[in-house]
Amino acid sequence: MIDKNINNGLRFFGSITASVSHEIKNHIAVINEYAGLLEDLVLMAKQGKEVESERLFDISGKIKKQVAAADKVIGNLNKFGHTTDNFYYPADINEVLILSVNLFKRILIIKDINLETALFKTPIIVNTSSFLLMNLILSSLENFSMLMEIGNTVKIGCETDKKGAVVFISSGNDLTKNVDGSFFLKNSAARLLSELKAEIFFNVNEKKLIITLQADATCLQD
């Protein structure tokens, strides 16, 4: 039987790769449409019909934009894959959040969540597992979204703390129900917090979920 932590990690890795592959396929589909249009224009030219060069340049430019966008998506997936290279290493929490937002974008759009980021002005370096932290962030975002009206905006950011760093998730909108920190410990969140040696707190008045990371924490390893 697969260990629960391993199973959770595989499920998270699978959900991200599936989402990103859909995003890549969308770009390929658009490129394919433009390729078909170019083929039609070439056939027109072979038949002696006039083809405006501006149309060719326009289509070529649109293809390049799609290639650049797909390349960015693949680059993010590559960074995500490398988060499993080392379980515990110094990571910039700003960079972790940027990568998380880029990777979770499609998942959150499907759940009708608008996301804003509030990054810290300088790097915040914490010894942690980026992979586990990203897993915790997605789990927290999904749980937080359950308290919101459809289409509301969630802000995610980070800041320094006397213990190390804080990742926060907040909303300027009223939440649909009152909860405490235990609401965010369901599913895999409690195990992830334990492995990261992190703490979670929900500020009801500010409608803010706070995840505290210790700067010198050593993530638990088997």
Description:
The protein is of the alpha+beta class and 222 residues long. The chain has 2 domains: 79 residues; 126 residues, Heat Shock Protein 90, CATH 3.30.565.10. The protein contains 5 helices and 7 strands. A 5-stranded mixed β-sheet has the order 2-4-5-7-6. Strands 1-3 form a two-stranded antiparallel sheet. β4 and β5 form a beta hairpin. The radius of gyration is 22 Å and the shape is elongated.
Features of this protein?
disordered C terminus, alpha+beta, Heat Shock Protein 90, 222 residues, two-stranded antiparallel ribbon, five-stranded mixed β-sheet, 7 strands, 52% helix, single chain
Task: Give the N-to-C terminal Cα separation.
Answer: 17 Å
Outline type: elongated
CATH topology (fold) name of the largest domain:
Heat Shock Protein 90
Fraction of residues in helix = 40-55%
CATH top level label of the largest domain: Alpha Beta
Sketch the major β-sheet: 5 strands, mixed
Instruction: State mean pLDDT (0 to 100 scale).
Output: 85
Give the strand order of the largest sheet, numbering strands 1, 2, ... along the chain.
2-4-5-7-6
Kindly give the count of domains: 2
How much strand content do the residues show? 15-25%
Instruction: Label the structural class.
Output: alpha+beta
Contiguous low-pLDDT stretches (5 residues minimum) are 218-222
Rg measurement, Å: 22 Å
